[in-house]
Amino acid sequence: THVRAAPLRPALSGLSATRRGLPKEKMTDNGMMSRAKVLTIDNMNPTVKKVEYAVRGPIVQRAVELERELSEGMKKPFAEVIKANIGDAHAMGQQPITFFRQVLALCSYPELLSDSTFPEDAKSRACRILQSCGGFSMGSYSASQGIDSVRQDVAQYIQRRDGGVPCDPDNIYLTTGASDGIVTMLKLLVCGEGTSRAGVMISIPQYPLYSAALAELGAVQINYYLNEEACWSLDIPELQRAVNEARRYCNPRALCIINPGNPTGQVQSRQCIEDVIRFAAKERLFLMADEVYQDNVYADGCQFHSFKKVLFEMGPEYSETVELASFHSTSKCYMGECGFRGGYMEIINMDDDVKAQLTKLVSVRLCPPVPGQALMDLVVNPPQPGEPSYNNFIKERTATLSALAEKAKLTEQVLNTVEGISCNPVQGAMYSFPRITIPEKAVQEAAEKGQAPDMFYCMKMLEETGICLVPGSGFGQKDGTYHFRMTILPPKDKLQILLNNVKEFHQRFTLQYS
Amino acid sequence: THVRAAPLRPALSGLSATRRGLPKEKMTDNGMMSRAKVLTIDNMNPTVKKVEYAVRGPIVQRAVELERELSEGMKKPFAEVIKANIGDAHAMGQQPITFFRQVLALCSYPELLSDSTFPEDAKSRACRILQSCGGFSMGSYSASQGIDSVRQDVAQYIQRRDGGVPCDPDNIYLTTGASDGIVTMLKLLVCGEGTSRAGVMISIPQYPLYSAALAELGAVQINYYLNEEACWSLDIPELQRAVNEARRYCNPRALCIINPGNPTGQVQSRQCIEDVIRFAAKERLFLMADEVYQDNVYADGCQFHSFKKVLFEMGPEYSETVELASFHSTSKCYMGECGFRGGYMEIINMDDDVKAQLTKLVSVRLCPPVPGQALMDLVVNPPQPGEPSYNNFIKERTATLSALAEKAKLTEQVLNTVEGISCNPVQGAMYSFPRITIPEKAVQEAAEKGQAPDMFYCMKMLEETGICLVPGSGFGQKDGTYHFRMTILPPKDKLQILLNNVKEFHQRFTLQYS
């Protein structure tokens, strides 16, 4: 069930498979005493078994198999597998920002600092980063919280972004992608047993990192449902319902928000954010704001508001009390640099003793990857007007963001022409999460296979069209509703074809099971 | 207690400090209602509080403070802080391998592929890596287990290293440094409550990642003591004692070995490894072999033997049954590329269902950093004879390893000239871990300060000489014995001065407290 490379020794893995489930000692075919495994599925960590992560689940494993089969010349009803399952921009052809990569090359191989083909601003940026690295090398460990100068640049970026709301570099922790920061924060929060076990509120649909981390940490997942009928809005009465019910069986401690939404693509209004903050204050919840799509806002009239900014605009009653962690990343927005695993978190109003524990905890893993830290630095401190790389940087950034905006609109439009598919506007982020009608006969056939109906649907689409989507059940959805998540990342011409193929598949599927 | 950058807003952190320990609601100085924190030291995750990590503990925090004070012009009895606390080679002036950095620059900024100043072998290596990345970009996510072609190269490296013992790329998982792999494996193993709680055997002295991870995961740490009198040898009777005692209160499941040793620098004999494997088989323990220092062997007559190789040489009774995970990294050896957080683990004889769970678990974090994967690829597939970069690569590697060997010897020699310091040979790895005599009066003064005696000693050395070492108590040691860990990484002339300063400090300290 995992990605397979050409095995150098097929015999070995075959042998170990045959031994599964044997009692503690048994004679094998070749006459040797065999032992039961020390570590088995029955005695391994039970919380790990509960972890699920649909974005890289069985459907993606099948997609990888299909790619291999295609490359081995096997005949399929499609020429290529299109992975629209994950927000992996460069894999879909998005080009990296030239300036960022120039600086990374200079940092990797500082001999290039004397190469006249590199622009001066790239060189000065690289020097500044390297001067903050021990021995002028990205190969040195950084401080566990991240390189000082990078955290200072992050703080200044946040201050600019939030119209001057102050930001202390001491509150910035660089991370190995946003996922790392989120899991670290959740780790601090879990505690208790039985009805006092820590509970964490997450949206449904959600990004499955949250459910996976909560399962692994043994915390209680408290679901609040986004309102699909109102463009996936977050309604306070639903938050209230969720927390009231949860208080009967656990200790709700934190509220996680993803804005712009993943997988749902909505962008929260300033008012909504204010209401959420009031709710968190009233219910005494630690706020976690996943803001990795902060540059990915496409819809007219929509604007990104950071939780930090709104919190501080609400005055000291809130800004000096509500505990907040917000997360950002190099992986999304216009950069799409997922592979570098760069990110940061800002923590607000955290108790000083807890913060010391956080600093200690991150020190065990030594430091986030330095190339990712360097990249994060460039994201928060890009070329400025007057610098040689400024114009090209703006051109590249604008081109990427405009293309995404166009593809967001296209996706919504085409999907809404299909009977049995209805798609909210993709206001932001990188995904559409349309609702699909699945005929009763298909629901039954899925049940016979032990599959969720939308998994059955997506698996069939993959086999017939080569399109890899993630079923809504992997993110959570209201009972009886079905969805899939599809990225808007493929190049426009490819996206057009993909959307048409989805359309035709849906029509065929509906016909077949009606 | 954390690394401080210049605060943009000192007032805020001051305010939050004054609010600590207040009851749930209270009027503050400025007349507002204040709330107790949601997340406090008393209600946070208790397992996180138990985590300790001496390598980046209070002494390093003080070292960072001293550096800042020096840079601000404050007078100290020394001109610079020398951090001999951590195996951070580049920070100590070790130069990166040119070929590795050329390939990383090419991968970061592929425009350079048309630059004629880069050697052809660096270009072809970069192309091979980029062709395995989605969209020819290191900015794409890789497979969660790691890039296929890199795992194939790792498998071939292991096969060569182990004299042909087969290695299946399917058993290779690329990781975010070795730490990540070790923690992931430990995560699979923990389970149970009370006397059936999982126990993991670790050496004392140990590398504190192990104790930190076990504390966080809530597993039982089972100590076995290395024999300092016999050059930190691992004696089977001691393993037996430890496991027998542990069976009374927990469920011993795994045995961790660090070879070459950290912090103790010993290199295990082939015989010893064989005995350990027999012991693990007999006691039904999952073996974890931390082999990140596999190229760092200096002493005459010593040689690195991988657990994998010895296991397979012991015949199918062992090679087909004993479960083993071994770990490697880009951070040590001759590369010293810590900042890239590259690494891999190989798993042997793992149950197929558990392996599927492992693959699922690593997928939640998406993938290890791709630049670190690329670097791991170069380490396992360096320039070959006949390639343009081969001679220079060999020259650079040899120079680094010879210098380390020389410094290992120098360190042992100088420290052993000091009365009250006795140092085992540094056979391998990057550290000496000498035993120090601390006068009774100093032990008492430390007790009054609530410090371990060797923490008191190291803190005093730091304040007087600027030398930052880690006290033995951070790694564990026999009661009543005291040590420190010192890296052998500073350049030779600096190391000479450092050793003399340690010597003088020790003499002064001994005199003062006698």
Automatic annotation (TrEMBL), chains A, B:
CDD domains: AAT_like. The keyword Lipid metabolism does not apply. Residues 1-27 are annotated as: Disordered. Its cofactor is pyridoxal 5'-phosphate. One of its GO terms (biological process) is L-alanine catabolic process. One of its GO terms (molecular function) is pyridoxal phosphate binding. Residues 139-499 form the Aminotransferase class I/classII large domain. The keyword Phosphoprotein does not apply. Its EC number is 2.6.1.2. It catalyses: L-alanine + 2-oxoglutarate = pyruvate + L-glutamate. Keywords: Aminotransferase, Pyridoxal phosphate, Transferase. Homodimer. Belongs to the class-I pyridoxal-phosphate-dependent aminotransferase family. Alanine aminotransferase subfamily. This is alanine transaminase. The gene is LOC115405620.
